[in-house]
Amino acid sequence: MIFETREEAGRVLARDLKDKVFPEEKPIVLAIPRGGIPVAYSIAKELRIPMSVVVVRKLGLPWNEEAGFGAIDPDGSTYLDEDLISYAKLDPRTVREIARRELEEIREREKKYMPEGYPDLRERTAIVVDDGVATGYTAMAAAGFAKKRGAGKVIVAVPVCPKDAHRRFSGRADEFLCHHASGEFSFAVGMFYRDFHQLTDEETLEYIRRAKEEGLFEP
Fold first, then answer.
1. pTM, full prediction
2. Residue whose C-alpha is closest to residue 9's, from 34, 56, 42, 37
3. Which one of 19, 28, 147, 182 is separated from 126 by 20 to 30 angstroms, measured CA to CA?
4. C-alpha radius of gyration, the chain, whole number
């Protein structure tokens, strides 16, 4: 299963979500930036439901920031892989310092992407979207944030994931939807896209601008 672009992945995911979206539940798509934004934009456009952004950040190992040991949400709550923290011998002070730095980055990105603040999620169905999950901690953080903000139901929806991802999200979201669950030993989200370039802030803001012009963005 190979997607050409993140937008194509969003269109495919929209078909999977079609029977799970009910107007009376006031559904909203919450994109994890940056890669989740084109996916969410396509879903919002296909299903004619609003989208927004939830800024969460991966917590990376000091010697390899791409290797995440957890994530942090906009409230400063952390979602941690305790086994990896123990294996990597990370002390609590180091974990707190990394979390502090990433929370500062969240604040900067909120100013760029969400200057009006987060939408009201009370009693709504929140569909958390990214371009895929590997460890899944950023999606867990976004789902946890949506729950704290009062969402009636939280669905995590992604185009690709490892086969054990469903188990990881048990108890973290009301529903986990993955279009293609892969058994690849060395799983990486980018393996399933022909175009998986890192989005710039300019590209990200352009998607948000287009969604606003089309009446698809909250707030």
1. 0.94
2. 42
3. 182
4. 16
* Structure tokens that stand for 157 in this block: 């929806």
pLDDT of 85 over the 90 cut: yes
What residues does each domain of the chain span? 6-56+112-213, 58-111
- Residue 151: the pLDDT is 98
Q: In 3-state terms, what secondary structure has residue 63?
A: coil
CA distance 122 to 15: 25
**pLDDT band at residue 67 under the 50/70/90 scheme:** confident
In CATH, the number for domain 58-111 is 3.30.1310
Q: What is the token pair recorded at 74?
A: 């906009």
Separation CA 92–CA 90 (nearest Å): 7
Residue 64 tokens read as 């390899």
Q: Which residues of 18-27 are buried (b: 16+ CB within 10 A; e: fewer)?
A: eebbeeebbb
Distance CA 112, CA 22 (A): 31
